[in-house]
């Protein structure tokens, strides 16, 4: 009973906030609605018994990725009227995407109704007793080891690529020399003087 | 296994159906944590001010109540009676939502903190991930406050906070991985139990706490310093550096919305002290694995450790000057990140060597 209620609550909020993500006029509000959608999707994952995925969704997407989105979007000066002018130009592409997605949903539901796939059957069955971190770990490091390592490599390459693309040497910056700052002692920097009145200090 | 299971049974015994009994017991469990926590926050603010004053050779709050004990309540009453001022250029909804987020996030993490063996509101198997998830939400309260205030100092502060918290969460994540690898579980109670009885075979009595483990001790230090940065306490309080940013993200806040930040901030500080105690210093276990010490309830050991870490937090606040922003980033990315990564490598290597042996 409470699971059903929670499911409909989370699902409704996910759909509503996803819609508001693309409908809201203010880009910061759009990102915030996106975060709301992520958060409730994590709730759905919890209901499905995938607590590890749910936590990762919150940590990675809500806690890191969306913060950076928000960070960037807050600093942008976006004129939404200008952006909206492009809607007509891209309307055809958008409509094609929408039709493709709708068709996929219809096919999926149709296939499910026809009984073509049994959702209970899994490629890698796990027993209910194993916590799902362990279950995922066992599979990732045995059966899907190659794919997992390849994904890791792809991420590494992407990371190096991002650094290479944005890194540039600039000559006009003042760099902090930490070693020199730490080595500096009071006797090198401070001089005690006892000037007579009216004399002042020689610098 | 949760503390409120007996409570659920008790309500069922009174004739309530299981669902309602569970619901009532959970609500009572939440209140049993949240209300004392609020009291603890009020008292810890007093303690903080007293320690800070003592280190500055002042007397600190000493007027309201005996020894000034009621100072925080007087402050609370004052803020409660003030007018809530919302700047006319602010985004009203987000402006009011931001302190609520900070406060809520500071409270929800307590659901998985074990106060004694089995005394925990929600004994979930992804406990530490939940802690990490909730603490990564904390940054939103600050970013939103900065942006919704529509004022430049709060905005600078929000940008600083976002960069700072995201940076230090990376090294905190690696530190937690090292601890989790050692304990073999994400469950906080299991992590505490895994710290029982270090070196019992050499010393006769074991020492409780990961800090004695040479592979984890450096991580305890990194975690302590990162938790200072994560809670934006001095010397990492660049988000509210009063000489540069007025009061940072709180600049435009007044009355209760300001008080929520205040409470949330200190609740976070207590939480970080608790995590330090739980992950590295044996949590609710006594310091030495010696039977008579177990007569003292675990919750008292935990409180003693929390107070010790809070004292350290105040001590640091009173004595260490504020970092420059580039120093903060250097410490997070160039020192803590490689160090914690290296220790994850060491810990996992050591555990593999213990369990599997050296590769042939």
Automatic annotation (TrEMBL), chain A:
Ranges annotated as spanning the membrane: 6-23, 30-47, 53-76, 88-112, 144-165
Group of enzyme by EC: translocase
Disordered, as annotated region: 184-203
Alphabetic keyword roster: Cell membrane, Membrane, NAD, Oxidoreductase, Quinone, Transmembrane, Transmembrane helix
Statement: the UniProt record of this protein carries the keyword Transmembrane helix: yes
GO MF, any single term: NADH dehydrogenase (quinone) (non-electrogenic) activity
The protein's Enzyme Commission number: 7.1.1.-
Reaction catalysed by this enzyme: a quinone + NADH + 5 H(+)(in) = a quinol + NAD(+) + 4 H(+)(out)
Gene3D superfamilies: NADH-ubiquinone/plastoquinone oxidoreductase chain 6, subunit NuoJ
This protein's record includes keyword rRNA-binding: no
Subcellular location: Cell membrane
Membrane topology, from the record: Multi-pass membrane protein
Function: NDH-1 shuttles electrons from NADH, via FMN and iron-sulfur (Fe-S) centers, to quinones in the respiratory chain. Couples the redox reaction to proton translocation (for every two electrons transferred, four hydrogen ions are translocated across the cytoplasmic membrane), and thus conserves the redox energy in a proton gradient.
Family classification: Belongs to the complex I subunit 6 family.
The protein's name in its UniProt record: NADH-quinone oxidoreductase subunit J
Organism in which the protein naturally occurs: Sphingomonas canadensis
């Amino acid at each position: 009973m409470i699971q059903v209620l929670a499911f409909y609550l989370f699902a409704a909020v996910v759909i509503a906030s996803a819609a508001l993500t693309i409908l809201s006029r203010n880009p910061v509000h759009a990102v915030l609605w996106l975060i709301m959608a992520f958060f409730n999707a994590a709730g759905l994952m919890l209901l499905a018994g995938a607590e590890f995925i749910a936590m990762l969704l919150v940590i990675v997407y809500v806690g890191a990725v969306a913060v950076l989105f928000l960070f960037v979007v807050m600093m942008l000066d976006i004129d939404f009227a200008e952006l909206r002018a492009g809607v007509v130009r891209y309307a055809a592409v958008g409509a094609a995407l929408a039709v493709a997605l709708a068709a996929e949903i219809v096919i999926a539901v149709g296939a499910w109704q026809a009984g073509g796939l049994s959702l209970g059957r899994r490629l890698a069955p796990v027993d209910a007793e194993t916590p799902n971190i362990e279950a995922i770990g066992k599979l990732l490091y045995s059966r899907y080891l190659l794919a997992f390592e390849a994904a890791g490599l792809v991420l590494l390459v992407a990371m190096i690529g991002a650094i290479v693309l944005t890194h540039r040497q600039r000559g006009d910056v003042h760099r902090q020399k930490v070693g020199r700052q730490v080595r500096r002692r009071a006797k090198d920097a401070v001089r005690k003087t006892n000037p007579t009145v009216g004399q002042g200090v020689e610098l | 296994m949760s503390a409120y299971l007996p409570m659920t049974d008790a309500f069922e015994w009174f004739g309530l159906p299981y669902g309602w009994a569970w619901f009532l017991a959970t609500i009572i469990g939440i209140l049993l944590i949240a209300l004392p926590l609020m009291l603890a926050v009020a008292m810890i603010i007093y303690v903080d001010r007293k320690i800070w004053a003592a280190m500055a050779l002042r007397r600190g709050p000493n007027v309201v109540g005996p020894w000034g004990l009621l100072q925080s309540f007087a402050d609370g009453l004052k803020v409660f009676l003030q007018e809530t001022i919302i700047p006319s250029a602010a985004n009203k909804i987000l402006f009011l939502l931001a302190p609520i987020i900070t406060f809520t996030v500071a409270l929800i993490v307590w659901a998985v903190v074990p106060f004694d063996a089995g005394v925990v509101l929600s004994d979930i198997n992804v406990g530490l991930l939940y802690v990490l998830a909730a603490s990564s939400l904390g940054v939103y309260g600050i970013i939103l406050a900065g942006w919704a205030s529509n004022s430049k100092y709060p905005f600078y502060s929000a940008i600083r906070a976002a960069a700072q918290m995201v940076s230090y969460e990376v090294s905190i994540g690696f530190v937690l991985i090292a601890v989790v690898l050692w304990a073999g579980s994400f469950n906080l109670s299991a992590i505490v139990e895994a710290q029982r009885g270090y070196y019992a075979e050499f010393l006769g009595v074991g020492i409780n706490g990961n800090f004695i483990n040479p592979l984890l001790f450096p991580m305890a230090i990194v975690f302590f310093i990162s938790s200072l940065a994560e809670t934006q306490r001095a010397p990492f309080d660049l988000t509210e550096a009063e000489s540069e940013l007025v009061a940072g993200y709180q600049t435009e806040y007044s009355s209760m919305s300001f008080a929520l930040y205040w409470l949330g901030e200190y609740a976070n500080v207590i939480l970080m002290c608790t995590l330090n105690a739980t992950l590295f210093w044996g949590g609710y276990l006594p310091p030495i694995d010696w039977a008579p010490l177990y007569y003292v309830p675990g919750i008292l050991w935990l409180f003693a450790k929390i107070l010790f870490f809070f004292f350290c937090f105040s001590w640091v606040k009173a004595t260490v000057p504020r970092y420059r922003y580039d120093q903060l980033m250097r410490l997070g990315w160039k020192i803590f990140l490689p160090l914690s990564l290296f220790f994850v490598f060491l810990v996992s290597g050591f555990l593999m060597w213990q369990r599997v042996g050296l590769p042939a």
